[in-house]
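Bench log. Compound arrived from synthesis this morning; before running ITC I wanted a structural hypothesis for how magnesium ion sits in the protein. Inputs:
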Amino acid sequence: MTNTSAEFDNSIVADDNVVALTDPLTGLGNRRRLMDKVRKLAAERADDPAPFTIGLANIDGFKPINDLFGHAAGNEILCQIAHRLRACLPDGGFVARIESDEFAFVLPLVFEKKGAEKIGRMFKEVLSAPYDLGDRNVRLSASFGFAVYPFAGEQFAELMKSADTALYRSKRRGRSQITVYSEEIAEEMRYSTEVEQALRRAIIANEVEVHFQPIISIADGAILGFEALARWTDRELGFISPGVFIPLAEERGFIDSLTESLLRKATQTARDWPAHLFLSFNLSSAQLTDPATSLNVMAILNSVGYDPRRLEMEITETAMMTDPETAASVVDELRAVGIGVSLDDFGTGQSSLGRLRDFSFDKVKIDRSFVSEITIDQSSEHIVKAILTMCEGLNLKVIAEGIETPEQAAKLLELGCVCGQGYLFGKAVNAETTYRLIKADQETQIRNRNASLTSLNG
Ligand code: C2E
Ligand code: MG
Ligand code: MG
């Protein structure tokens, strides 16, 4: 084990200040020393208006590491991080530890975004190598936020706040991200906080609606079922796409209550449909890492009185990858009670064939990006063909997503794909319109049947 805790920041002359300005665990400077450094530099640069950069690095998921391996191991990792950061600091740079798992840098010779990103990538690389804990190796990642003086602030507090906003954005975007503060980023953060607040309010007020997009038999347009899609229009913010608010609810930790309310609404509507029509519902990634998901789903279905065999859950590959073991058991439990499971957006994630073998699915939904190119791009056609052949062998049904033109529909039929959805057959519409669609579809089916009977008899 490398023990770096005894080392002190050698740039400080040993005096009474050393203790007050030093982080006792790692020997790096602390927040006060960082503040001194930044203030001094800002004062120098006030006359000579050359920019400089400050940065923050926060270790991703440090708490679970501490919980899993114990505090001594956690401390050892922090010391090794300090050691690595100090070793790779660029000329004139300074690093401090300012919170348990947060480090700050001053980079006097980094003047703009590109330079900060380059240093961020280098730090990221350096921190991603395994940590030696004697009996085991541990890997971790870090998120970064940078702020360039004087654009992101002239005073220490303001600069730190900007770096913090940038770091927060990195954290929100997942692990190992690097963000350099800008006015647009600040605006983006303000907007998402506004959306978050409005969405929380809308969920409580039960204002997030469910619309339904028909899934049809491509050959004759007969309706087979519907995909439930969340719809939300805020009084002030206007229409907000689920592509925006679903990930936001996931990030900010309230997707569970949203999903529950959507599933309840969707099944209450679908309960009144003819029994042969199924409901397809999108499960979010958070639910795939929660072992209680199938129980929660069943509790809703029981209280609504909806037959689980008429429900399909759409999940994405990316969502399954976060915690494949839990995801696999959630999928198995759902299927055990008769709920079908479809792999959504197939072809856009890792599309690992192993996953199709290891997980038990019922359906695969071919992503719109292939369907929309199928008549103009040979490789998309080949990919769709390959997916269809593979799914046939694995006994999986296939739905083509995003069919917009009759040519695409014809091509899909020619390749042997019989089910699909897309604007050609209908956009997502509210419960009432959905019901009218179902009625009209039933009438068409009866008319078709009568017509074929007449032609047979005649
Ligand atoms: P998704 O599950 O892949 O849903 C299909 C998306 O493609 C929907 O967008 C749908 O309106 C759109 N679409 C369908 N046919 C066509 C077409 O022919 N052309 C084009 N250009 N688009 C088409 P939407 O409703 O904006 O939803 C976006 C994504 O948001 C969904 O992708 C799904 O991942 C997520 N989402 C929507 N509702 C929910 C929900 O209730 N829960 C969860 N967890 N996610 C949801
Ligand atoms: Mg879907
Ligand atoms: Mg999809």
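What the model suggests: The chain has 18 helices and 16 strands. Residues 5 and 25 are 5 Å apart (CA to CA).
ITC booked for Thursday regardless.
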